[in-house]
Amino acid sequence: MSKYPFNRLGYMAGLILLAAQVSPAQAELNLLNDQALSGISGQGGIYLSGDISINEDGGPIQNTYFGSCSDTTKRCGARLAYQLKEGGGWMVLDDIRGKFSFEGLTLRVRKIDSGFGGDGALFNRDVLEIGLPNFVRYDSVTFKLATSSTARPTDPGFQQTDIFSVEMQGDVVLEGNLLVFPTGNP
Amino acid sequence: MKPSVITRAGAPLIALLVPVSPSVLADLQSLDDSAMAGISGQSGITMELDLAATANSISYFDDGSGIHLDGFRIGAASDPNGRAHQIYKIDILDDASLNLDFVVQDRRIEFTDVRLDDNPAASMGGVFFDHDLDGNLRLSPGGSLSSSGYTYDVSYQMTNGRLGYRTNGNEVFLDGITMDVNAPGMTLDVDGSTLVLASPSVTGSFSVDAIRYSNNPLNHGVSSDVTSGALLPSYGSLSGDFDLSSETWIAAGGRFGDEGIRVDGSTTINSANFIYSDDGNSIALLGMTGVNTVDNLRLDVALDWQGRQSLALTVDSISGNLDIQQVQLGGNGGNLGQINLDYLFADQTINGQAYTNAVYLQGGGNADAGSQGLRLAAQWSLANANVAYTEDGNRVIFSGLQSWGQGDLTVDVTRNEVLNGTQFYDGLRIGFEGVKGGYRINGLKVGDDDAPLQGGTELLLALGVFPSYDFEIDGQITLGAGGASGEGLTINSDIQITNGRAALVAAPYDEGNGEVSQKGLWATELNYDTHVREMTVDVTDDGLAIIKGEAWGTMDIGNLRVGDKVEGNSFGRFVVQNYEKGSSMTIRPGGADNVCVGGSGTDASSCAASGGLWEMRGEEGVTVSLKQVFARAISDTKRNAFIWETNRSQGAGGPENGTGTQLVLNDIHTSDGEDLDGDGIEDNTFGIQTDLSVDIYHTKVVKKEDGADANGVVGNRGDEKIMDTSTAAGYRYVAAPTDTEKADRPLGFAVQAHSRFKELSVNNIDLVHPTGGAATAIYGVKMQNMDIRANLTATPIQ
């Protein structure tokens, strides 16, 4: 067993993310149930629920490209463009719309010094714990992936090629906790 | 030896208060019999006099150290060389009481400087007090403790009042003060060596027409500028009423040496209302009640902790509570809710250092502002406070607030000029010099004071308040008179915070078993340099409107630590720079009202049909509307940027900033995306607009796992948490709660947010290597047409 057992999961930009049911490391982790947490100091934190919608009724720009969602000749979603090469073209996520809702996203700092099949005692560190909601509901979440000649669709010489569209609907199961903690040289 | 009061001119102080000076006597006119016929109560004595009295200095000595009121004068308010007109009628009544009717017209009492022995060149500044009085004092034998005491019945009306503070030719003053006071049955007794003053009932009302500012040295206690004739600018007006009772004990003996004064007291606010108005729109604190107790307040002329001579006010403790039934904001009279607080200022030890409560008043103010000004070398120690906010009957308590610190505060009235290399602005300048302190909040309680302590103080981040903060502050904030239009405030400030430690997430510092290391997510080695120019603050019909002229700053977080704020491991260094022009904020009473959470619909049935949760959050609460206009970068300090740096070289004091690898988001800015005004530059007026409506509301909380929870309460996954005071833990889990049980869902903060922007751009994203330099990874990011709506509820974890 390594000094820091979570090293098995690999490092990602200095953060180690543990998600009990969406990580391939699931088999190696033991979920702490609510009662097990009773022995952990620092019970502070918050519990979040709610919904977030993007451009449900369109955005603030009204021009030849963007408009109301009732106007089928225009796009009412948000647009994100970024340029990877100086003077080159733009990658675009276009017409971003949709709604997400969730119950029970938690946020707190806690010390892990027990559990995890004995690995917790060896780990013995503080982590920022993001408790994932059991379900995240996607309601008509859509966007288009495209390439464009300009950052704005209203810039001179604008040309855009929509590569594909994505639409997401339904519930996604997100269980367990996301543990975020520093590692390496700060 | 008793403390002594003398005048430097050699005349006893009483000579200034009682009309016995030759110059005054020469002006007295005897009343003939026909004149006397118009005066009632002819059995007594009537004195009518025109008074003008001056003294070069009045001094108070305490253990050989003196404080001097220089340039003392009593005379006319309207004429610096004129006399105040006063009429006193004295009668002995049938019950052997002494009755004094008094009328005072056009009187000013003032002193130009307050100086201390050790630094006579520095003055605390001057104070003037103008007033007309019409009142009555009745003095009867016998106090509350013995027949050797006295009983006073006092009532008076003050009109045409002014109370001002002047430094270096600039003034701030309350103009047009009117006050009615009725205080029957006040008693004065001697108990051993202590004077006991009891005021069983002090009722009255007051109003202040304007709080004015003058930067013209030719002005002194006038409403209009003597040069231009224009009315002087105003911060706003005040009004209120009060019903108080109090007891005060006064004894000889200071905290330092043999001499000094000791004061103990207790004041009860039976009822009070306070209203600040800006062009007719008000902030009103209504229905106030409370108690304040002062234990062992001492007044000395003594040295502060840096050996500087001062007028020292030191106290063992100040405790009390204050309840405000309504906080109304805006011309439309909307209600934010109810506030209750209790507090205890007392000595405490934080991080091994002892803190107390003391203010040491010294002369001089800011060193560059001139010879006049006030310096307060202050130590504060708030040992415990609880602040409760209630809206629509739902209550959240921020529990275990502690604060501590020490440092110098300077107070100067300044004008827009550069003096000795320092830029000053029009207004009342409050300076911070080496102020080192902090605060922390233990946790939240919902419902009542006996509720269990919970986490959740990080919810305050939504209001820009850290749950815990250690800081060192230098800088200034200048409060100018006049807002965006008419009355109001204009603020210019420069604040530098160094060596800060701010919690973004914080666990309690005391869970009931004594103080523990507070766990959290901490921004440490924090240096924050922030500047604001021409920011106006006005009360409008809707609420409080704040418009920033120009604001910029750099928040340099040396380490973002998780766990302990000193020893916790670090995610690295984060730098956030902001540069805004034309940003604004409006705070309005009233929250989100009716909301469909997780669905859509305009009523309960349509919301439920869409799978949503219909919430009626009530009329109270608060809504904050923000407009953040991120301007394009014009320099390395005036820009919007984000930097994350890791892998820094280790120096003697830890990781050295600038030696590691950086991710830089450079020149983040908003834009309207078009040039409507035709000036050749893209407009940038829309910014990022965000509306946040915050309520305290019952929130659905579901159990995430089968079995017992952290407090041993058993339930199944998906069960709802229902508060129940009859259970040991204060709650239980219910699979399918009834409507009655739903009314007992846990309380939390419900936030309805709506944020939108036309364009938000990042000029470039660079990766910076300490030796290889910057390499651009992304040559531009542009987000357009974004509109995000969110309904979020946040409850503390129990």
Could you explain the architecture of this structure?
The complex is a heterodimer of chains A (186) and B (798). Helix content of chain A is 3%, strand content 41%. By secondary structure, chain A is mainly β. Chain A has one domain (5-180). In chain A, strands 1, 2, 3, 4, 5, 6 and 7 form a seven-stranded antiparallel beta sheet that branches. By secondary structure, chain B is mainly β. Chain B folds into three domains: 1-111, no CATH class; 129-135 and 142-463, no CATH class; 509-523 and 558-572 and 585-794, no CATH class. Chain B has a 37-stranded antiparallel beta sheet that branches. In chain B, strands 18-19 form a two-stranded antiparallel ribbon. Chain B has a two-stranded antiparallel ribbon with strand order 23-24. Chain B starts with a strand and ends with a strand. The model of chain B is unreliable at 1-28 and 36-41 (pLDDT under 50). Chains A and B meet through strand 1, strand 2, strand 3 and strand 4 of A and strand 31, strand 32, strand 43, strand 47 and strand 48 of B.
How are the SSEs ordered, and which strands pair?
The complex is a heterodimer of chains A (about 190) and B (about 800).
Chain A: E1 46-54, E2 78-82, E3 90-112, H1 119-123, E4 125-131, E5 135-148, E6 160-173, E7 177-180
Antiparallel strand pairs in A: 1-3, 2-3, 3-4, 3-5, 4-7, 5-6
Chain B: E1 4-7, H1 14-17, H2 22-25, H3 33-36, E2 45-51, E3 53-62, E4 65-76, E5 84-92, E6 98-111, E7 113-116, E8 126-141, E9 150-167, E10 170-191, E11 194-214, E12 237-252, E13 261-278, E14 281-303, E15 309-329, E16 334-335, E17 338-346, E18 348-350, E19 353-355, E20 357-363, E21 374-391, E22 394-414, E23 417-419, E24 422-424, E25 427-440, E26 443-446, E27 468-481, E28 489-506, E29 520-539, E30 544-547, E31 550-563, E32 569-570, E33 573-581, E34 584-589, E35 594-597, H4 604-609, E36 613-616, E37 622-628, E38 641-646, E39 650-651, E40 654-655, E41 661-671, E42 688-698, E43 707-708, E44 714-715, E45 720-723, E46 731-734, H5 739-742, E47 747-769, E48 773-778, E49 781-796
Antiparallel strand pairs in B: 1-3, 2-5, 3-4, 4-6, 4-7, 5-6, 6-8, 8-9, 9-10, 10-11, 11-12, 12-13, 13-14, 14-15, 15-16, 15-17, 15-20, 17-21, 18-19, 20-21, 21-22, 22-25, 22-26, 23-24, 25-27, 27-28, 28-29, 29-30, 29-31, 30-34, 31-32, 31-33, 33-38, 34-37, 35-36, 37-42, 38-41, 39-40, 41-47, 42-47, ...
